[in-house]
Design goal:
The complex is a heterodimer. By secondary structure, chain A is an all-alpha fold. Chain A has 10 helices and 2 strands. A two-stranded antiparallel ribbon of chain A has the order 1-2. Classes of the chains: A mainly alpha, B mainly alpha.
């Protein structure tokens, strides 16, 4: 039996807990709103057509960020070119073909662990393996390969996750019609899983676009006059540009740096939101 | 898996020279980091302690806030509120670390300097606070997954016995998800200790063993990032930086592996 005083105590505890936990959630929301608001507040002033199309002048204190944006687009494109095919094939293999056993479990564990390796360690790896050993030199290609290694676990996990959500009936129906396993995967399973795979991969690529540490020693440069013209040229990139402005340019121009940050965060969020919305839309189209 | 092994292999190969010439135990226990003096002194202890101090501060911030927010999202919110909260967490995870660094430079450094009336705002505390913010999304999303995986029957059983929602949460749900929440903390730790750019921009990077949180510290990650650009490739200093990377890799690998094993155990437990 609950006595009235115990009931009151329980009620007080309930209210206190709710308020305490709620305030933790509010803190998180507050931080996030502050981050967005502050970036927009500080960066919006610099944002105009000239800023996006001009080259940096006076060590980045004036001018625009055109080559910086282009550099980031090149590197992310290169990252996608390596990470997507390898990641999707690996995901399909793990989800559809790999025998359920110790080896597969170990591979899975290694993949989740890869996601936790610090980005600066990927930078060291890229320097040793791609820049020096493979002799590619500091370039878009080396940086893209490094970022691709970092993005691979995301692509693999997204692929596996998407394939797992395809109902077994669909596969069996396809097999019953006489399709081989490969044909079944190619014509039935993959198209159905495509929205999930693509969205997950885009989210991973968006993260890669914002990384600084892996490109520090693999090809990003402080300033270059021309737009990169081959995969072997060095490049400027948005995150690296922010970093070098703040740490190595005396009297850096805060307006332009915040403008760069706004372009980076805005670009990353826009692409992510677009991908997530597209997936939600596709999901509604296919109803099991 | 091949890549993971390759990473370890490349780090190790490049670290060999340092290991042979300077010795791992001398490096790990050395307290002086003067890589450019002649002969260079490569005592990593200030760097390791710097990393641990900053990570500790970060976890003091992110564990209470992160776990609290996760419990609230999973147990006390529903519908649209829940969806919005989850998207906000995802957004926080997507903000690049250099941007957190920039916010720290603009907001946190002056704030820490004024509040504690310090000569400089470039301190371990500043770096730790921003790292705490950065590891919140990891802790919230993994903890929330763990709470979500607890079967509804348990909650309903507890409610049927007359427990309030908080009593259910505190006595049944959270203990059941305990190992998952613990894994979330570990992964948050892994994220914080491996973070580079934001810390580099905020901690001042003095390679001395810190006496208090108001002093400048230098982390392992920051050291690699700051010094690798200026070393002779193949030289001893270069090799030592790879050793720092190797130490970092081993630490994060251990932490993540432990967390993964815990999570997998829990997943098995609730699978029916």
């Amino acid at each position: 039996m609950m006595t009235p005083s115990r009931r009151r105590k329980a009620r007080i505890a309930e209210t206190t807990a709710r308020m305490l936990l709620g305030s933790m959630a509010l803190i998180v929301v507050g931080i996030a709103l502050f981050v967005v608001g502050y970036i927009v507040y500080r960066g919006a002033g610099a944002l105009d057509w000239q800023f996006l199309t001009d080259v940096p002048r006076n060590r980045g204190r004036e001018g625009g960020i055109f080559p910086v944006v282009i550099g980031t687009v090149w590197v992310v494109g290169g990252t996608a070119a390596f990470a997507l095919p390898v990641g999707i094939l690996a995901g399909v293999y793990l989800s559809e073909y790999a025998p359920k056993g110790f080896a597969t479990r170990a591979v899975r564990l290694a993949i989740t662990n890869m996601a936790g390796v610090p980005s600066i360690v990927y930078g060291l790896f890229g320097l040793a393996a791609f820049v020096l050993l493979a002799g590619i030199g500091r370039s878009i290609l080396a940086a893209a390969l490094t970022l691709a290694c970092m993005t691979l676990p995301v692509v693999i996990t997204a692929t596996e996750e998407a394939l797992r959500q395809i109902p077994q009936d669909l596969r069996q129906a396809s097999l019953a019609l006489g399709a081989t396993k490969f044909r079944m995967i190619r014509t039935v399973v993959l198209p159905a899983a495509a929205p999930g795979i693509i969205t997950g991969s885009i989210l991973g690529l968006a993260r890669a676009a914002g990384e600084t540490a892996p490109i520090l020693f693999t090809g990003a440069v402080f300033q270059m006059r021309r737009i990169p013209d081959s995969p072997l040229s060095q490049f400027m990139a948005l995150p690296y540009h922010i970093y070098t402005q703040v740490t190595s340019v005396p009297e850096w121009n805060p307006d332009l740096v915040w403008g760069t940050a706004l372009v980076l965060v805005g670009g990353v969020s826009l692409v992510s939101v677009a991908a997530a919305t597209w997936r939600a839309f596709q999901r509604r189209k296919i109803a099991w | 898996m091949v890549i993971l092994a390759a990473i370890a292999l490349f780090l190790a190969i490049n670290a060999i020279r340092a290991l042979r010439e300077a010795g791992l135990d001398t490096m790990l226990s050395g307290t002086l980091w003067y890589p450019t003096s002649d002969p260079g002194k490569f005592g990593m202890l200030p760097l390791v302690l710097g990393s641990l101090l900053v990570t500790g501060i970060a976890l003091l911030v992110s564990i209470p806030v992160g776990v609290g927010a996760a419990v609230y999202i999973s147990e006390f919110s529903r519908g649209a509120v829940k969806d919005v909260l989850k998207s906000i967490i995802e957004f926080m995870a997507a903000v690049p670390s250099v941007v957190y660094g920039l916010i720290g430079v603009a907001v946190l450094i002056p704030l820490v300097k004024d509040v504690f009336s310090l000569p400089s705002g470039l301190t371990a505390l500043t770096g730790g606070l921003i790292l705490g913010v950065m590891s919140i999304p990891t802790i919230v999303s993994i903890s929330e997954d763990a709470l979500h995986a607890v079967p509804m029957d348990l909650r309903q059983g507890s409610a049927a016995l007359g427990n309030t929602r908080w009593q259910t949460t505190f006595k049944v749900t959270v203990p059941s998800a305990g190992s998952g929440i613990f894994a979330a903390m570990m992964l948050g730790l892994g994220r914080a200790i491996g973070e580079t750019i934001a810390v580099l921009m905020l901690t001042g990077n003095a390679a001395v063993i810190p006496d208090s949180v108001f002093e400048s510290v230098r982390t392992m990650t920051g050291t690699i990032a700051a010094e690798m650009g200026e070393v002779v490739q193949g030289g001893l200093h270069y090799s030592v930086l790879f050793t720092v990377g190797l130490v970092l890799f081993v630490i994060t690998f251990g932490v993540n592996l432990a967390a993964d094993l815990v999570l997998e155990r829990q997943r098995k437990r609730w699978r029916r």
